[in-house]
Amino acid sequence: MKNHFREQAVEALADPSIRDNFRGAMDFLRDKRQAAFPNNDELAELRSLGHQIKANTLSRLPDLLEQLEENCTKNGIHVHWAETPEQACEIIHSVIKQHDGKLAVKGKSMVSEEISLNHYLEAQGIEALESDMGEYIVQLANETPSHIIMPAIHKNKDQIAHLFEDKIEDVKYTESVDELIGTGRRILREKFFEADIGLSGVNFAVAETGTLCLVENEGNGRMCTTVPPVHIAITGIEKVVEKLSDIPPLLSLLTRSATGQNISTYFNMISSPRKTDEKDGPKEVHLVLLDNGRSRMFQDETLQQTLRCIRCGACMNHCPVYSRIGGHAYGTVYPGPIGQVVMPQIEGLDKQGEMTEGCSLNGACGEVCPVEIPLPSLIRKLREQKAALPSRGRKEAIAWTVWKGIYGTPFLYKCFTYAATRFRHVSPKSIGSWTDYRVAPKPAPKTLHELIRERKND
Amino acid sequence: MNTTKTFKANKPKKIYFFGTCLIDLFYPEAGISAIELIEREGVDVIFPQQQTCCGQAPFNSGYSQEAIDVAAMQIELLSEPIPVVVPSGSCASMMKHHYPALFSNHPMCEKAVELSTRVYELTEFLSRVLNVVLVDRGKPVKVTMHTSCSARREMGVTEDGLSLLKQLSQVDVCEPERASECCGFGGTFAIKQPEISAAMAEDKCQAIIQTGASQLVSGDCGCLMNLSGMMEKNNQGIRSAHLAEFLLKRTQTTD
Amino acid sequence: MSIAKDNILQRLRAAKHKPSTEIPSNWQPPRFDKKERLLQFKKSLIMAHADIIETTEDTWAQELLKIATSKRLTQWLYSPDTVSGLAFNRMVESQPSGITLTPYNQPIETFKSQLFHEIEASFTEVKAGIADTGTLVIIPDKSEPRLMSLVPPVHVALFRESTLLNNFSELIEQENWATKGLPSNALLVSGPSKTADIQQTLAYGAHGPKELIVLIIADIKT
Hints:
The complex is a heterotrimer. Among the domains of chain A are: 37-292, 3-Layer(aba) Sandwich (Rossmann fold), CATH 3.40.50.10420; 395-457, no CATH class. In chain A, 51% of the residues lie in helices and 10% in strands. Chain A is built from 23 helices and ten strands. The radius of gyration of chain A is 26 Å and the shape is globular. Chain A starts with a helix and ends with a helix. Chain C has helices spanning 2-14, 34-47, 60-70, 83-93, 108-117, 168-175, 177-180, and strands spanning 51-55, 75-78, 100-103, 121-125, 128-130, 135-138, 154-160, 164-165, 185-189, 194-195, 203-204, 211-217.
């Protein structure tokens, strides 16, 4: 099925609550980020370092993954490898089955969205409950996250108040955020208490020490990785980091870029399941390493840079397109600039190529990316690959051939511009969608070429 | 990125002027104004008549071969080792920052790289190389400026344009809200995603009108065409002009 | 599943790479002089909505008791294995207060119900502090397990300035984790649990403690 980006975008633009909710949220997050980087020089140095660390990691990716597995195993963490979403789901299901698990509480994980884990587990009779407040809201509404960091950003508090009133027993309508969060806390605490499985993502997996690092503010991540007897973490293979000393700069970049915090409330470093003399923590820890197209991205020198991403969401926060249409319009797990680069590579340009057009190449995303991924260049590169597909739009290909014919032949160009200027009064008043919103530009009486020739003759 | 050759020490005797296709057909006055501003400083302007377009539009659309074919001709036309001045942030950026990548596997790679070191956006050239001094001869006016995304992020010349404007004593420069956000033009983006582009342009027009300025200026005619086209359609138009045209008019002695 | 592993690694190894170019960076984690360091630590904690109480070796237990009584928190989790846990216990026993101290001395499996449903507050020590970000370094162990700083709605932590570091990088170096390996769980805690998931409005006590109170014992000035 082809992604109908433009149609979905048009629908989103017509929804004033989407426009308002995203505008408010994006302004908020942009201001927060800017305040978190008061010193431009420091920011530049830190971004270079982030770029360098992730680039070095990628240059040794296969070795580091093996080192990670070796050290995790030494620490008592079971490591699994999955090439596809199906494989990852099966691995997770088989671990849950071994423990006869019925209820899995989940910390925030975009990779779990990528593999549609919740649906898979549900079909197997296992309840997978999101416990991040935003994810919980989204799950309650039977929706998907519209932002990779703030999943329920498309909803305002009135909408959430109505949702809670409708979906949760004995909850009255309230616009008090404290009360709404209190309700979530109350319900989810009991779920942490009951759950037999904890699922989570991973922000950084340290090869050198076999450590899984999780960044969060709410404490649900710690609950999921500590209370249930089994913890299963899932992550993409690009999340490996070589050294523990690489973590402080990456963490600083991540939280400051994402939400403008100098650090998140919790930074949780997990290096082993519960040891014999310890009283809590999971008895088993599993790590699932997912490929799902990443090793393919890795093949291209340029597109490989996609894998530097630390999933901070700053690119979407600063994207003027995302700010207006929101995350759902992209119709993909990852929205915004990083989504426009990741999704066509995972799912193919035939299916997801259309979304690369939803970009004015204004460069705001690349400017804020904490690991200096040249997102606009990557989007352009994907457009180039799309234009080389047999399925490319024929009209556009013809248009560029004609364009080249004119602009590549100075004589023809001169004829063309001469005609356009001389017949300016009959130039079209309506030129497709441009004039739906703007007046048509009118050629000047004479071109610059002519005016200059005339000046010389004076 | 500091590959720009410095011509500051001694002002160049002559320069190439690359007019851009948009200015050629729709805003030639902007081109003439830019040339006059440069000539006024005692610099000869060479305008190769065979020039057409930098090739940015097909390049951004993924049609690199078409872009290369046209760009290669421009490179050949601008081969003397003198500065190339471009009255557009986005076309300047195409030549300065994207030609080297576009031609990286092309026999003309070396020439493309060499050219890129000589490319200047107009306001950058006026303020940093020529160090122009502007004497305002106009009446008091409130002006707002839109800096294109390429001028801002790729060329890094936001301050150059503003500083020229701020030299004018009777001009009150006011910045629109969210000044750094894209106006929605994006070349073929405005054609391919007209609804999103319009939503962005609407917000930008509103921010511009809210400044209370009676004049909009920009160093990029693409953005101007987008914004003034929309404001005119909605009958809320304020005057708009390329920065070069505005600067020249304000500083001309014979009026 | 080693087939998946082999396939993934094989694909990664088949890829051609540009030799990685060195990207220069002079970034250094922030450092502070001694006086500034504690100020930065306190400032950051306060900004993160933690409560701080500056106290001394002689008076902190008294302060802790005051917190318990003023907030009417009677069910406390503590560790009888730490010096400060014992001191808290002595303080509680020295006068009638109605406060019950419970040790976390059994596995979570048998303690979960009490921990989730009865305990109102916990008191722990911290391993170190990080000035840059206003962070408490908590290394859970058998005497102060992982959930002690997470499940109780109020968490009081005892911090000594002598353990204050400039930044996270210093902690990693000091603990020599890269060579020694890490403890099973190591935590950086920088405030009470919070969320802004509803319309960017901050709410505290999302899932973890609603309140984080830090008892700060400053170094004695010489």
